[in-house]
Amino acid sequence: MTQEQHVPFPTHLLIETTTRCNLRCKQCAHVIHKYDFADMQLETFYKLRPLFPTAEQVALYGHGETFLYPHFFEMLAELKQHDIFVYVTTNGTLITEDVARRLVELQLDRLAFSLDAATPELFNEIRRGADFEKVLSNIRTLNALKKQARRDDKPILSIMYCAMKSNIQELPKLVRLADELNMTHGVAVMNIYEYGLSGESLVEHPELAEGPINEANRLAQQLAVPLGGLENGFEGLRIALVQLSAWDRLYRNYREFKRSFDRKNLLKTKWSRLLDRLNRDNSLHQEETTTEIRNKQESGKTIRVKKCRDPWEFLFVDVHGNIRPCCTSHRIMGNLHAEDFMTIWNNPKYQEFRAKMVSPDIPEECKTCIRKAWQTIPYAPTL
C-alpha cells in the first residue's frame, strides 16, 4: 500500500446516538420525515473502541435528541475513561436536575443548546413542542450545579443557532442571552439547509444577514462572548472590523469575571492568553515574510476546493453503523456490522473520495455544502 492508503485513525468522531426527537422544529428534516426513528445499538458503539485511545474529540448527537437515548450515560462514562473531549448538542427540554447533576459528575466537556430565538413567542414557534422559559430554567439548573462545583468548564455551555430569514434579527439578543446564561463558549451560527421549509435560507441573501450579524459581532466583542460560524454559509458577507475602546476592553474583562464560577482559574487562563498573544505578535513578521516568499515561489494551475479535512480526520457513524464522510453527506463508505473499521477507512471508496476533495472535480455534495468555506490551492495532477 502507498502512504496515501495508510491514513491515520480519525481524531474527531461523531456518533449518532438516536434519530428520535421529542420536537418538530420547523427547519428540521424531521418535519418531512426524512429520517426513521432508531437508536444506536451498544454493539455498534463497542466496535469503535479501537479508535478511543487516539481520539481527541467525540460528539454524541445526530438527527435526534441525545437525551432520549437510554444508553447515553454508559457511552459518556466509557469515553471519559480516555483523554477525550466529549461534546453534545441538545434542545434542552430534557435537562432535568438529575441529568444535569450526572453531566457535571461525569465531566461532560461541552454542551450546546439549540436556541434559535431569544424572544419566547418566536422560539416556541420555531422549536415546536418546546417551551422557552422551561429550557432557560433547565440551563439555570445546570449552572447552579456548576457553581456548587466551582467549575467554569465540564461542561462548557454554548448556543447553537440556526440562522433563517425569520429569526436573523434575534442574533444580537442571543449574544446577550449567552452572556446572561454563562455560555462561555458563546454562540455558533449555522446557516440552514432547506428541508420542508421554503424560502427561509439566507445562503443566497447575505445582505439580509449583514446588519444583524455585524451588530451581534460588535456586541460579542464587547461582552467577551465568542461568536463563531460566520465564515461558513455566508459567502460574500461583509463583517466590519471591531475596534474596542479602553472602556470596552475594561467592560469585556468585567463581563468575563461576572460570568465566572472559578475566578482563580480564569486569571490563569487570561494570563495564558496574554502570553500566547505576545508570542503571536513576535512571530507575525516572520510568518508574513515566509508566506510572501512561498507565494512568489508558487506558480502554475490553481483549483477551488472546500476548506475541509473531514475525510482525513473526521468520522461520522450513524445509528445503523454506517460510516459516512461527514454529517451532511449521505454517501455510505461501509458498515461496521459488515466490515471492521480499518477496512472501511482505507477502502477504495474512501481513497477515491479523498482524491476528489483536492481535485477540480470535488464530490457533488461538497459543492453545495454551506458548512465549509471555499479556498484556492495549487493543483498538482496525479500521474
TrEMBL record:
One Pfam annotation reads Radical_SAM
Question: InterPro entries from the entry?
Answer: 4Fe4S-binding_SPASM_dom, AdoMet-like_SPASM_containing, Aldolase_TIM, Elp3/MiaA/NifB-like_rSAM, Radical_SAM_PqqE_MftC-like, rSAM, rSAM_sf
Q: Which keywords are on file for this protein?
A: 4Fe-4S, Iron, Iron-sulfur, Metal-binding, S-adenosyl-L-methionine
Domain of life, source organism: Bacteria
As cofactor, the record names:
[4Fe-4S] cluster
Name the Gene3D superfamilies on file.
Answer: Aldolase class I
The residues forming the signal peptide are: none
Radical SAM core domain span: 7-230
In Swiss-Prot or TrEMBL terms, this protein is called: Radical SAM domain protein
Source organism lineage? Bacteria, Candidatus Moduliflexota, Candidatus Vecturitrichia, Candidatus Vecturitrichales, Candidatus Vecturitrichaceae
